[in-house]
Write a structure and sequence with these properties.
The complex is a heterodimer of chains A (about 475) and B (about 525).
Chain A (H helix, E strand, L loop, with lengths): L5 H17 L5 E18 L5 E21 L5 E8 L6 H12 L3 E3 L19 H5 L1 H15 L6 E19 L4 E17 L8 E7 L7 H12 L5 E2 L9 E4 H13 L3 H5 L25 E4 L21 E5 L2 E2 L6 H7 L9 E4 L6 H5 L4 E8 L3 E3 L4 E13 L2 E6 L3 E5 H4 L3 E3 L3 E6 L8 E6 L1 E4 L3 E4 L5
Parallel strand pairs in A: 8-17, 9-14, 13-21
Antiparallel strand pairs in A: 1-2, 1-5, 2-3, 3-4, 5-6, 6-7, 9-22, 10-11, 10-13, 11-12, 14-16, 15-16, 16-17, 16-18, 18-23, 19-22, 20-21
Chain B lengths: L12 H18 L7 E16 L3 E17 L2 E7 L4 H18 L13 H7 L3 H4 L11 E4 L12 H22 L9 E18 L4 E17 L4 E9 L9 H8 L1 H6 L2 E2 L3 E7 L1 H13 L4 H5 L5 H6 L11 E3 L29 E5 L2 E2 L6 H7 L7 E2 L8 E2 L3 E4 L6 H6 L3 E5 L2 E7 L4 E6 L2 E5 L2 E8 L6 E6 H6 L1 E4 L11 E2 L2 E4 L2 E5 L1 E3 L3 E8 L1
Parallel strand pairs in B: 4-6, 8-20, 9-16, 15-26
Antiparallel strand pairs in B: 1-2, 1-5, 2-3, 5-6, 6-7, 9-27, 10-11, 10-15, 11-12, 13-14, 16-19, 17-18, 18-21, 19-20, 21-27, 22-27, 23-26, 24-25
The chains are: A alpha+beta (about 475), B alpha+beta (about 525).
Chain lengths: ~475, ~525
Amino acid sequence: MTLSDPSTIESLIQALSVFSANHADIHGWKLRAKTTEGRQSLMMSTAMNQIRVYQDRRVTDNSYEVELFIPTADGQQMGTAKGSLDPDSDLTAQLTTLSNNAKLALNPYFELPEKPTADYPEIPSADPNLLEQLDASHEELLQRIQQHCPGLTSVIVNSAELYCNRHHEVLITSKGVRASKNTTDIYFEVAMEKDPAPNDQEVLKYWHFISLPEADIEHKLDAVAQETLLTLTATLPPTRGNAALLIDSYAISKMMAAVASQLNAQAEYFQGPHFKTGQRVTAGDSLAGSDQLTIGLDPKLPQMAKSTAYTDEGQIAQPATLIENNVVLRQTIDSRMAQYLSKEANHIVGNLVVSVGSESRESLISDREEIFEILDFSSLLVNPSSLTWSSEIKLGLWHRVGQPSLVLKGGIISGNIKESLQAFKFSNQQVKRNTTGGYFEPANGFVGPQHMLIWHGVSIAGQQEN
Amino acid sequence: MSTTTLFHPELPVRLQQLQKVLKQCQQSMESGRSSELYAFAWYEEKLSYVVEAGRTVNTSESKDKGIVLRILCDGVQYESASNNLKEEAIQELAAELRRTVDAKHPQAQQKSYLPTTWHQELAEGLPTELEQQIPPHATQDTPAHFAPSCTMDPEKITIADLLQRVHAYRDQALALANQVNPQLNGASCLADVQLMARFRMTYNIFVDREKTMSQALPISVIGGGGVTTTGQSLRVTKGGLGTLELIDMDEADFNDMAVVPQELSCAEKIKPGRYKVITGPAISGVIAHEAFGHTQEGDTWMKGRSIARDLHANKTRVGNEHATIMNNPAIFSMEGQQAGCNGSYFFDNEGQLARPQTILAQGYLSTPMTDLTSALELNAPRTANGKRESWRRPLMTRQTNTYFTPGDKTLEELITLVDEGFMAVAPRGGMEDPKGGSLTAGAAYFEEIKKGQLTGRKFIGPAGGHIELTDSVFDVLDRIEAKTGVTHADKTPAVKLGGCGKYHKELVDAGVGGPYILWSSINCG
């Protein structure tokens, strides 16, 4: 895939070069162009889980964004301004406006990084079939959904959504950076309830995939149907001041991403909560039997949400271990923050890689007399500043002495991640999951354990027991 | 007596030609098959000025624009969306969409949807702000333009205006933080105050066979707050449908940003359990939005994903006599503000004109809010709730401004009714469960009430974060004890800025509001 109109980007580069030549105060610029083509299908079911598309969309999007860098005359500060460029309108006027804005937004001076001396590595960040045949791929996935749903028994498929996208992005800077990548993504969600209706519960699940082989639609539909059958008799959880909890990779990835965000050097520069090299990420010493946390970032994993050859600054993206056995080995430092904090830039970005544990899920469930397993959170909100979280339980299981005794729904669980990292075990099954990102959650690729048992720093507000 | 000049943003001349092109496309999409196909064209343009100020300062000035062309045939909404706005490209997009529909539906099974005429709209009745802006004797080709009155000229607002405000407000908050910290025993220091200010001017064009409309929607927002070195924070948000006077901050805002986070860093943790709680307008609004807001969305009904359809059919009462909830895109003034909220507009993304709707009346559910698809599927009245995140995204039934109607008490009277409980005024998100009938609403913190008086003691969540309020919707709505009154002429309470992701995505503006409400018992943790 390429930009839908490659000549446009050349005309924008030409305009930026001419504008910079005519304005000696401009130190540099960064241009990002992106083309996206997408298919979107919203579906509902009729009788016998026959799936019908009721909204069928095709989207083409070409966007251009530029950032200007203009230092003050004394060289102490750097003005920056970002904005969209409309290639069909007066470019000089648009750049003049941005230039004026940059002179108002002054930050400590920093140098823009030069083009890397080495070549960017080849990172397979897209699915080749989706890239080449978006429509056919989307139609095939639709067919698979429509063929599989009628075979699901004892459940009603209420709705489904399928989006397929392909993107081509180009990053060009005045310092010689010229990098590009193709990416793809698929979004699939389905909502089911048990049959016969009426019900007061449903199961809603969604997934982000980067590649077609990952999109195991039939398996996902079967798994949701199986979980839906659990919604027969749910009860409020009991209130607990300290609870043992089993969470899945969705929650693990969100919590670990919040921990990793405090390793970003920007968090240190902003003087908010952050971790420095050598610090422990736990609130205190590990309790007996706890695993130790090891986390890294890897941009080179094929076909994942954060796979990339280059950083936002156009530098070669680097993998590294960030936390080993609960201790911070290194922060993630870009060129600008390196200058602000007098540190060395390391350009570490990428997918989150979390070490797995040694026990199976079944073994973890038998680890404590009472364990609350969360199958679905209503809305898991993780606060990256305080590293606390909370949510209502949408669906859970109450295990007693290793056996599920009740299905749970409702109540509030809240937790403190730093306290929970003192007493946890990861399961030994490794999974891969992707979030392509949006307003509600940033893009994230995750390779790590399927389950996590926590027995410290979690409380439940449910019903009071006599 | 002083008079203030009010500004009424017009449709820019550059967009008037586009409106004509879109009309031609709409006609070509229906051409020869108008008895089977219904088509419309939509244009949106969002010019946004954004300033972020913390230890670094960032500005962004962007114009996002795109079109959506739609053909409805046999119950399927076919759409093509693009930001290539060259005339020939738009015409080709329309032709291609028509070819797609012709290929899939050489003969339609259903007759075309018939949109309402201006005459029908006026006969049904419209809010004054809309009716006054419809040209006399309007026909399908008469351009009708809608806009709110603004105190400032939106054309003259710049990044510099926003920067001046955020710098001044941040400086005042930081100065206050430095004065206060030494007096707070055991409190963490404020690490920073981060503020974001945004002015966004949206222009929309809608054309179908009966109407040619446009609207200008200026929205001003300021949001942000302080964060301590240990991560305690409090966010303040202000703004609405109008210009920058709506984002002026005051001493109370500085206190919330600079002092409260420090107080929360040494606040007690609440013991999970059931409490008597008074919610402020924003949290009352979140509860309205999550309780029977999402549950009353037509597409949720249509897919069998809401309990409300059966409850409505069975005339089941789901709340007590205080439980009345409105959804109203036509808010252009409210308690304490001579402007609308960010969920206000004149017509939705499918050209349906804005009217207020009571979605829950003293505990009884109405028919749902609808978009075109759900109205047709459910044979329910159309309402102006067809919205999308942007031209890039699908359209769904979405809420506009959702709020509880006011009561008759003063806030002081409400507090005196609480022997032991809490007041919650700072919102922190919420989540719906339209099928399961439960809800959660977040509060950044609670302030204690004892023997009918606020004690000044603040509480945070059991794990040190925010506090979640959750319960069955039926229980919540049956436990409203009393509500405060308002002085606004139309009895519209304060409606605060809000945003909504349906289930977990598709972010749209959605105002939330209501009076202060006393709830006799809510599960908190």
